[in-house]
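Protocol step 4 of 6: structure prediction from sequence.
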Amino acid sequence: ALINFQTVIGDLTGLPTANASLLDEGTAAAEAMTLVRRGNRQAAGPFVVDADALPQTIDVVRTRAQAMGIDVVVADLADGLPEGPLSGVLVQYPGASGRILDPRAVIAETHERNALAVVAADLLALTVLEAPGQLGADVVVGSSQRFGVPLFYGGPHAGYMAVAAGLERHLPGRLVGVS
């Protein structure tokens, strides 16, 4: 039987709408940063990135942010969020170090500060960890390579993005479905 990739992503992330083919996890994270800005017009301040995020993800987010005039702050989220306004937060779940930080407190504080929470999640880890959508995440991104999706013509693995209800129309690319 064929398995619908978007259904698998939705089930593992705990979010209703999923997209794929975002090149890789770093690019998906950068797209999530711009989605956060589009999806929350009231957002002000920098986009905060977990210091325990994958180094290539941090680099891609910084590069995209620089081109768009968005400030990026890299912070150890185990110590909480930096002071001041923020437009969004990216939490790595689990972290590049292997640490599994329960993101609930960071996500709750992000929402209290009128910002959106992005979680960069490992799909294989999500088979045993609680779904980020159930923890309050607005957007979940990552790479599908952990499920054996091969390199495409020597290029990167397919990144994915899943979003909470109300953010569907801000997803990059096209959505196909029945409405």
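Step 5 (inspection) to follow. The longest helix spans residues 25-39.
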